């Protein structure tokens, strides 16, 4: 699960770089949403990974 989260957060960052750079105005808003969604998923997976007994 952590591997998928890291993969998706990297994709969101790459999409953010293209979107924030002015290549596509619509891509910027989508990238912002994806970035924050996957950032939250990444933090949740880190927390749940450490509490495994």
UniProtKB/TrEMBL annotation:
Keywords assigned by UniProt, alphabetized = Cell membrane, Membrane, Transmembrane, Transmembrane helix
Q: Which InterPro entries match?
A: DUF1328
Q: Does the keyword Hydrolase apply?
A: no
Question: Does this entry carry the keyword Cell membrane?
Answer: yes
Ranges annotated as spanning the membrane: 6-26, 33-51
Q: What superkingdom does the record give?
A: Bacteria
Q: Which HAMAP family match?
A: UPF0391
NCBIfam families (UniProt xref): PRK13682.1-1, PRK13682.1-3, PRK13682.1-4
Q: What is this protein called?
A: DUF1328 domain-containing protein
Q: Which organism is it from?
A: Flavobacterium hungaricum
């Amino acid at each position: 699960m952590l591997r998928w989260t890291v993969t998706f957060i990297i994709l969101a960052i790459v999409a953010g770089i293209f979107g924030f750079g002015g290549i596509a105005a619509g891509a910027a808003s989508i990238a912002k949403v994806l970035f924050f969604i996957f950032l939250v998923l990444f933090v949740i997976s880190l927390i749940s990974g450490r509490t495994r007994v």
